[in-house]
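Quick one: structure for this chain?
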Amino acid sequence: MKAIRKSDGKVIEVREWRGASDVVYSDLDMNRFYQASDLDFNVEEAEEVTIDGWVAIDEAYGEAFLHEKKPVLKGQPIADSGDYDCVWHSDGKTYLLDAGLFPDMDCESEPRFVTITIKPKKQ
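Got it. Here's what it folds into:
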């Protein structure tokens, strides 16, 4: 079953162990044990998602891109005949972001390693 560890807010999988007088919980590999008071069992189905990657601003599109692998400066984009000097390319997954999220960066800035966290919002 899933539970939130109160000490750090991390969602973990635990197993219930019933003793003679109390109930304890352990990690699935049984390396750590928890009292029920250490855990919150009110876990929603949707969990937070974190994405690590490299942000670079692309001159051709005027947008920020989060690249799974560190991008390299390539020059002109494949699908455009424009004269651009700052086009970043990566062989991994790429996500489009609003460049306004990174006001201190421009197309000439070195890629920045970031973690983006998406948390479901309780209504």
